[in-house]
What we know:
Elements: H1 3-22, E1 29-30, H2 32-37, E2 42-56, E3 65-70, E4 76-81, E5 94-101, E6 107-109, E7 115-118, H3 129-136
Parallel strand pairs: 1-2, 4-6
Antiparallel strand pairs: 2-3, 2-5, 3-4, 5-6, 5-7
Amino acid sequence: MKKLNIVVLVVIAIVIALLISQLGDFSTYETIKSAQAKEGKTVTVIAKLDKNTVNYDPVKNPNYLTFQVTDTLGDRMPVAYYFEKPTDMEKSERIVLKGKMDKEGIFQIREQSGILLKCPSKYKDNPNAMKEDFSASR
């Protein structure tokens, strides 16, 4: 075998090994039940905010927010977020949560990037709104 072929095979083997080692880092979305079953492990859940359960008192503690969410299967869970309340949180359609379920059944989010809000599209109700915005900007 030529030296070039051996080098190419070694490089390919290294790339494959790196890809396999990174497969564990890809996160999949969990349901609330599967998140509860994986207590103590970091998981990502997509859910809908129950706007009536948002509890945030910036005077008492600006870095503590609690609320409840419901997934598409109808399961509910309480959430504790240890940062300030995200702007326009109540306007979001869906919330992507990344955190860990604790022994008491509370989903703990201890990273500021642990909440991603999925806001409704401003073009949802009026399909011609995008055309109107584009025309007005000309």
